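TODO from last week: model L,D-transpeptidase family protein.
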Amino acid sequence: MNILTLTPRGLCRAMAIGFGALLASGAQAATPAYEDVHELPRGHYALPEEGSVIGESYTVTVEEGDTLIDIAREHNVGYEEIRMANPDVSIWAPFADTEVTIPARRVLPDTKRDGIVINLSELRLYYFSEPGVVETYPISVGREEFSTPVGVTKTTIKVKDPAWSPPASMRREAAARGEPAPSVVPAGPDNPLGRHAILLGIPSYLIHGTNKPEGVGMRVSRGCIRMFPEDIESLYERVPSGTRVNIIDQPFKAGWTADGELLAQSYPALEENREGFEPLMFAMDKVAQVFGEEQPPVDYKRLRALVESPDGQAISLLKTAEEEPTPEPAEPRNLYESIAIAER
């Protein structure tokens, strides 16, 4: 994983660069200035001329009183992302001076780069807002019994300070608890839609803000897409009605950096989409698509570990020059044989 470390004087970076068609070797890159890495507005990235990887991961230091939730929001990261990237750090009470990884390096989803793309397993929204630019923000999606549907739709109406009508199922649940829900919740601090909402062509589904931003980056909604208030406000002002919205579910992504390094990211698959889904085969097919007809020099043990323990980190899959090949009786004929050999 490539890491930039934020210090009062700037950033230090160690970058692995892939060389050649078969082997990748590491090399030190020049240290970028903070303003060079963060020159675009929040969530904005220049689309690479080659490859499909954006951003760089980096670390920040916890200050007294910070929570990981505070740090995640400040750095455009959601709950699950910050938790998976820092499994040994307390979410609510991290020690001061602890280094926290900000997982900001991402492989773009394998889909048409047009309008808004929502990747459910990744819990992220991508917006291809103008030529050469992509924006990305953490989101919340529907929990298992209220899953967000997959498909292509579009934005329709935008509403500022929307009123919210709790669905009948929620009112029944509240009544069963002895807490009758109102039929309409007006705009204000108690409104779970927040101050901005963008309606979708799928009836009853919206992209909206929230009055509980600590839940952004989790599966907590009843199917709608939730965003941090500052992120939905920005989109609200700029996304035209009729914008294409592609809701996909890609728990595994693979792509090249501009320097020739093959990276992959793996996320926990949504329970409701697991029927007939074999994560390892899905990942291998994605890698095969990236390479085309060539036999990839992939570290299959690393690939398997990535799929079996998904944490959203961008990991290099190419074998390094230092790795000595293990003699085998015969060359593998395809990816599936390769991973079987790697497991021997």
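Done. Residues 4-36 have pLDDT under 50 and may be disordered.
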